[in-house]
Amino acid sequence: MNSLRVGVVGGSIGGLTAAVLLHEMGCDVEVFERSGAALQGRGAGIVVLPMTERYFTELGTSLGAGGGTAREVALTLTYWSYIDRDGTIVDEAATHNRFTSWNTLYRALLERLPPERYHLGYRATGVAPSAESATVEFAGGGTRSFNLVVGADGIGSTVREEVAPGTPTTYAGYVAWRGTVLERDLSPGTAEIFADAMVYQVLERSHILVYAIPGPGDSVRAGERALNFVWYRNVASEAYDDLMTDREGVPRPGTMPPGLVQDRFVEALHADAYAQLAPQLAELVLACGEPFIQAIFDMSAPRFRRGRAILIGDAAAALRPHVAAGTAKACADGWALRDFLAGAVDLDGALAGWEAQQLALAGRIAAKSRAMGEASQTAGTMVPGDPDWRFGLFGPGN
Ligand SMILES: Cc1cc2nc3c(=O)[nH]c(=O)nc-3n(C[C@H](O)[C@H](O)[C@H](O)COP(=O)(O)OP(=O)(O)OC[C@H]3O[C@@H](n4cnc5c(N)ncnc54)[C@H](O)[C@@H]3O)c2cc1C
Questions:
Q1: 13 alpha carbon to ligand 1 midpoint, in Å?
Q2: Ligand 1 in contact with 154 (CB < 6 A)?
Q3: Quick check: pTM over 0.85?
């Protein structure tokens, strides 16, 4: 399988992980990313699970140690704390979660792929899989054929339209308001509670969490970090289109970028922060000038493979964020692909084995993430300190 020609559609974390692993295995890999410029994170943090940084761990280096400079760009928080409306800690456990920024992970992976194999400005418009190959069509009219096409093109996947047509993407009834504030811009008393803890507050059919991520220049030093908040808030379907229309009147389905949320919605967020949140959390949310919004959707394709085209990461199944495992799952799909292909003599048999294993993983973790979201946002049964809320792809912390 080592001489396979592989085309990867989508050059984010999932596509890059698969591409780097298959390239290092000896495959002839090319990545096609629709964005015309190197990707930029949405200024937010991600939780680092073992699978997220497995590539760097196996290299014997740390995440972001590119260019020969060993530099720590992920940070560890010792505690997992729940506070109440008064700002008093009501539950605390030692969990040792690691966090980094999306940009850091993206750049670290991109450095591992020869630049001539990563093509920006290539938007796939379709894929035609057959028993022996798959052909990708691009906007502008070009086509390219490969032994295997990996669809890593996210929740709105074009490749999925061919592999699993008609897969529904369903709005979950709530959105995540997100934003970051520099640690040094908070009062010392407030900054202190976030210094070594990921902090949650459970609200009426809602919850908010805050954790530190690397600050400007990827600094992980105390005082130079950023604090990232995620506040899950129910938004009825009838009100959704209005919320997700930007200040210029442009619809932004799915994600409303920083700086574009209509003022009246930011004002409502601030009023609710003042009325409902612990003082430390309210100060943080009020200090964030440009919050942004990510809507929560359920989408799990019933199959990940048709002929020689497959789906990985968010293109295959998008998880609700409560398990903090979307990135880890995208990486896991790439690792499993490498493991099934390495040494295989029958490509289709290897892909069938890969599909069965990754479908089972996605099904399990998607169901868990949905149950968590429903406990918080619908049933209102989320309780501070519930160990089931620990992050993980295969199990808590893993
Ligand atoms: C720019 C960006 C910033 C992000 N920032 C964060 C963050 O700060 N925190 C966080 O928790 N998660 C973030 N995510 C989401 C997170 O990376 C993913 O949910 C998860 O890692 C799964 O990754 P994925 O590679 O499967 O899908 P995605 O990360 O969604 O990547 C899909 C990629 O495919 C490309 N693409 C889509 N359609 C086509 C097409 N037709 N042709 C070619 N390319 C196409 C997209 O431009 C994108 O780069 C971000 C994603 C992106 C794209």
A1: 7
A2: yes
A3: yes
The DSSP output letter for 90 is: E
- Report the distance separating Cα 38 and Cα 193, nearest Å: 35
Q: What is the CA radius of gyration of the chain?
A: 21
Q: Where in the chain do CATH 3.30.9.60 domains reside?
A: 75-101+171-296
Which ligand 1 atom sits closest to the C-alpha of 122? 43
20 CB near ligand 1 (under 6 Å): no
Q: Where in the chain is the domain with CATH 3.50.50.60?
A: 5-44+103-169+299-372
Tokens of 4: 């396979």
Q: Does residue 314's CB lie within 6 angstroms of at least one atom of ligand 1?
A: yes
Is 33 near ligand 1, meaning CB less than 6 Å away? yes
Arch. (CATH architecture) of 75-101+171-296: 2-Layer Sandwich (3.30)
Tens of pLDDT, residues 60-89: 766 654 444 445 668 889 999 999 999 999
> For residue range 24-59, what is the model confidence (pLDDT) as tens digits?
999 999 999 999 988 877 656 789 999 998 998 888
Note the pLDDT tens digit of each residue in 122-133.
999 999 988 899
Q: How sure is the predictor about 108, in pLDDT bands with cuts at 50, 70 and 90?
A: confident
Residue with CA nearest ligand 1 atom 8: 44
What fold does the segment set 5-44+103-169+299-372 form as a domain? FAD/NAD(P)-binding domain (3.50.50)
Would the CB of 324 count as within 6 Å of ligand 1?
Answer: no
Which protein residue's CA is at the shortest distance from atom 38 of ligand 1? 153
Look up residue 162 and give its amino acid.
E
Instruction: Report d(CA 205, CA 115) in Å as an integer.
Output: 46
| Separation between Cα atoms, residue 24 and residue 4, nearest integer Å | 12
